[in-house]
Amino acid sequence: MNERVLAFDGIHNFRDYGGYTARDGRLRQGVLWRSGQHADATPDDLAGVGDLGITTVVDLRGDSERQLMPCLRHDGFDGLVLFAPGETAGSELAPHEEAGRGITTADEARAAMTRLYENMPYRDVLVRSLTLYFEALATREGPSLLHCLAGKDRTGLAAALLHRLLGVHEDDVMEDYLLTNKAGNQKRRIAAAGDSIRQRYGAQITDEAIETLMGVDAMYLDAATRTINERYGSAERYAEEVLGVDAARREALRGKLIA
Question: Which family does it belong to (predicted)?
Fold first, then answer.
């Protein structure tokens, strides 16, 4: 198990995305956490999360997802939970569930996920959620937790944007993104998602297609990066014009997150 990853029974893909070398130093460790949803967390899981001292939770899921799978919190949790009302994935579905519509094979799943990532940086409710995320990182004290349903697509995009704004090397940006494919109990996570996706779209979807939907691929993040660069020239300009992360906010992020 990668040393970044915390092993929980009911919370998938829980890990520290700090610690990377950045432009002006190194990202602090123990203050930037990311994961999937917490609706299935066990009491031991919640106690473990409680030990991290998290003061801010940024929930990138939409209203339907939060209603269907409300996240559990440990006793005594008094942190701030931030989210933007509405559907961040453009529907009531998580991105990987949305991409399952009309596909059968792994190649079709990969193409659907790539198309989804091309549009993900411009979805209105997700944009508002990402704006809250960067504002919280720049202004609040204490460790934060960033999560969506599976902790891989919306969360992966947000973490990659932060890394790029702070000057993390592209190899490390991609390494952190791809760590989803190794973090936690992959077989159990994929099996649970497979049941849900097949109930919604049919039994014709292959095991390989389910694995493709539930994993990440460099081409997915590259697709989002390409559209950002085509429209704005850089992640920095996108963040400033779309998310309000101007020079002052970038400086605040460096002050809070770089040791």
Answer: Belongs to the protein-tyrosine phosphatase family.
Which pTM value belongs to this model? 0.93
pLDDT tens by residue, 49-89? 999 999 999 999 999 999 999 999 999 999 999 999 998 87
- In whole angstroms, give the CA distance from residue 253 to residue 247: 10
Residue 71 falls in the annotated catalytic set: no
Antiparallel, parallel or unpaired: β 32-35 and 56-59 = unpaired
Range of the domain at 116: 15-257
pLDDT tens per residue, range 5-44: 999 999 999 999 999 999 999 999 999 999 999 999 999 9
Cα distances (Å, whole numbers) of residue 153 to 21, 68, 87, 115, 206: 23, 19, 15, 13, 21
Q: Among the options 148, 150, 239, 243, which is catalytic?
A: 148
E strands, 27-103, in order: 32-35, 56-59, 80-82
The residues with which 57 forms a beta bridge, in sequence order, are: 81, 145
Question: Which stretches of the chain are assigned E, i.e. beta strand?
Answer: 15-16, 21-22, 25-26, 32-35, 56-59, 80-82, 144-147
* The pLDDT of residue 1 is above 70: no
The verdict on residue 6 lying in a domain is: no
Query: What is the CB-side half-sphere exposure of residue 88 using CA atoms within 13 A?
Result: 31
